[in-house]
Amino acid sequence: MEITRQDTFRETPEVRALLVADLAYSLVPTSIMGVTLVGVSLFIHAAIGTDLLLAAAIWGGLACLGKLVVMAVQVRMARNGIPDARMAARFEAAHLVVTVGMASAVGAVTFAVFRQSGLQLQLLATGMLFGYSSGIVARVAVRPGIAITSLLVAGVPAVSAAASWDDTPHRVIALIFLVFLIGSFESVRHAHSTAVRHVAVRIDMARLARKDPLTGLENRLGLRRAFARHETETGPLVAIHCLDLDGFKGINDRFGHAAGDAVLAEVARRLVMAAPADATVARMGGDEFVVLQRAVRRPEEAEDLADRIHGQLREPMRIDGRGLSVGVSLGYAVAGARGAQLEDLLRRADEASYRVKRAGGGVSAGAVAPAPRLRDVA
Q1: What is the pLDDT of residue 376?
Q2: Domains identified in the chain, total number
Q3: Is the pLDDT of residue 249 over 80?
Q4: Which of 167, 185, 209 is the last residue of a domain?
Q5: Which of 74, 147, 152, 309 lies at a C-alpha separation of 20 to 30 Å from 186?
Q6: Domain assignment present for 153
Q7: Strand ranges for the chain from DSSP E
C-alpha cells in the first residue's frame, strides 16, 4: 500500500479511535492539575473570601475525579483492543464534558482573581492558567475540538476580567492573554496534524506487515492474528481450509509470471466472494491459500464452504484475453472453537489437501472434531 501525503493527514475512523485512546494516558498531569486547581482556589478563597472560588474548587475537584474515572474505564476496556468508532465517540464525548468542566473551574478562578486588585494573587492565577493551557496543548491536542473548547472556556474569562480594568497594565495583560490564547490554537492544530500523520503511518505499516502485497489478502501474520480473535465469534466450531492450485506452474511457464500473478489475484477475489463475511482469507505463499471459517455450527457447514470454493475456482478465468483454468486441491479441518490450535488445524487440513492432490484434486476433510456439548460452550 502506497502511503501518500494526503493519506497520512486524513483522520480516518481508525486513526480517530487511536487518538481518542491516547487520552486515557494522562493520569499524572490530570492529577497534578486537579490538586493545583483545588489548592489554588481554596488558598485564594481564604484570602479574599469570594464564594465563586469555593464553588470553583468543588466543581474543579469533581471534574478532575470524573476525568480520572473516564480514563480508568478507558484503560480497562483497552485491554480488549482498540474500541470501535461508536465507543471511541462515546469516550470522546465523556472527555469533552470532564475536560471542559475543569476548564470552567480554571476560568472561574482567573475571572474572580482579576476582578480583584491583589497583584500577588493575579500572578498566582496567571501561573495556574498558563500551566493548565500548556497541559491542554501537550496532552489533549490530539482531539482539537476538546482542546480549543477548553482553552476558550479557561482563557476568555481571564481576558475579559483583565480588560475590564481602566488602566494600561491590565489591558496589556489582557492583550498578552489573548495573543497566547490565539497562538495556542495554532499549537493545537500543529500537534493534531502531526499526531494524525504519525498514527496513520503506523496503521499503514502494521497493515502492510500482515497483508500479502499481490492479492491484498492476509498473510501468515494476519491469519494468526485473526485466529487469535476467533473465540469472540459465536459458534461452537471453527474450520480451516487449505488449498493450492493444480497446474499453476504450467501457466507460469507458458504465459509468464504476469499471467500467473493475474491468476492468483483472480483466485483471491473468488475466495473472498465465496467465503462468509466473517471469514478470513489468507495467502500463505506461492499458490497456497487458507480460509479461516468462524462461527461454524455443524461440520456440514465447513463441507458446504469447501465445495463452494472448489466450484468457484474450477470455473475458467479470463486472463489477458485468454481462457485459463486451474485445478484445486482443498483440504479442511474442523475443531471445537474453545481450545483450538491453529497449527493443529493447519496440519490436518494440509494432510487432507495432500491426500486429495495425490488422488487428482478435489475436496477432502481432515479428522473432524465432534461438536462440544451446549453446556461446554455456554
Answers
A1: 36
A2: 2
A3: yes
A4: 209
A5: 74
A6: yes
A7: 237-246, 280-285, 288-296, 317-319, 322-324, 327-336, 362-365
Is residue 241 classed as helix, strand or coil in its secondary structure? strand
> Could you tell me how far CA 265 lies from the centroid of its own chain?
28
d(CA 56, CA 277): 53
Same domain? For 247 and 197 the reply is no
What is the three-class DSSP state of 334? strand
**Could you read off the pLDDT of 253-288 as tens digits, one per residue?**
888 989 999 999 999 999 999 999 889 999 998 999
Q: Which residues pair with 333 in a beta bridge?
A: 240
Name the residue among 219, 367, 349, 231 with its Cα closest to residue 294.
Answer: 231
Maximum separation of any 2 CA atoms in the chain, in Å: 98
Q: Is residue 378 part of a domain?
A: no
Who wins on pLDDT, 369 or 114? 114
Question: Residue 186 is placed in which grid cell?
Answer: 495554532
What's phi and psi for 80, nearest 5 deg?
A: -95, 10
The C-alpha cell at 347 is 496440519
Q: Residue 334's domain spans which residues?
A: 220-373
Tell me: do 319 and 267 sit in the same domain: yes
Nearest to 60 by CA among 184, 199, 154: 154
User: Cell numbers of 349, please?
Assistant: 487440513
- 3-state helix vs strand vs coil in the chain, percent to 5: 65, 10, 20
Report the distance separating Cα 77 and Cα 59, nearest Å: 27
Q: How far apart are CA 29 and CA 27, in angstroms?
A: 6
Nearest-angstrom CA–CA distance, 282 and 137: 43
Is the pLDDT at 82 greater than 80? The verdict is no
Mean of the pLDDT values across residues 179-194? 95
| Residue pointed to by grid coordinates 488558598 | 43
Mark whether 200 and 270 lie in a shared domain.
no
Cβ(184)–Cβ(158) under 8 Å?
no
Displacement of CA 61 from its chain's centroid (Å): 31
Nearest Cα neighbor of 231 from 140, 340, 331, 305 is 340
**Coil/strand/helix, residue 311:** helix
Label residues 276-300 b or e (16+ Cβ within 10 Å = b): eeebbbbbbeebebbbbbbbbeebe
Alpha-carbon separation of residue 102 from 147, 184, 361 (angstroms): 12, 18, 69
Distance CA 161, CA 165 (A): 7
DSSP annotation of 338 reads T
